[in-house]
Every structure is written in C-alpha cells, then in structure tokens.
Amino acid sequence: MPASADRKEYPISMRLPEADVALIDRAASLRGRSRTDFVREAAVRAAEDVVMEAALVRMSPEGFAAFMNVLSGPVEPVPEMVELARRPAPWESGAVAER
Fold it and tell me: Sorting pLDDT into bands at 50, 70 and 90, what band is 96?
C-alpha cells in the first residue's frame, strides 16, 4: 500500500528525561488520553498563548477614545456574577467529597 502524497501530519521527536515522561504519562492517563494526544494538546495550547500574547491590537484614535470612555464609565453589577461571588467556595461548604 503506497503512502499518501497528501499527508498533512509531521512527526516531532524529543528526548526527555525519564521523570518527565513519567509525569506526562501520569497526566495523560488522568485525562484518559494517549501520551501523543496529551503532549500535542499541551504544546498547541502553549503556542496559542504565546501567539495571542504577541498579537497587536490596533484601533483608530476615535476607537481608542470610545474604548477608554467605556472603561471609565460607571460600572453595573452583573447579577449572575454577584450571586456567584456570594456563594461559598466548594472547599468552604463541605461540597467536596473526601477521597
């Protein structure tokens, strides 16, 4: 069976200390994922974070003034957020089950 010329996957090889592999395997197991899936997802998520941090937001002087005006305006409480902030944390209410 010939290999497909349209393959869109690229192998990545790494050398890691045994302790790192053991930690990755444990975490992947806890998530019910393979080592490959776990590492790929973690690497892509980290890459997205870096790219988003480097993204430049551009706006016109008028747009910036409007943005600052909204930020400087009066605040209005969001009822759902107020209710959430008033709830005790799970570890304070005894809702967390003992293991």
Answer: low
> Is residue 88 in some structural domain?
yes
pLDDT reported for residue 64? 96
Q: Is residue 8 part of a domain?
A: no
Domain containing residue 30: 18-93
- Ranges of H-type helices in the chain: 18-31, 35-54, 61-72, 79-86, 90-93
Q: Establish if 10 belongs to a structural domain.
A: no
- Of all residues in the chain, the percent with pLDDT exceeding 90 is 73
Q: How far is CA 70 from CA 2, 53, 66, 79, 80, in A?
A: 60, 23, 6, 20, 21
Count of structural domains within the chain: 1
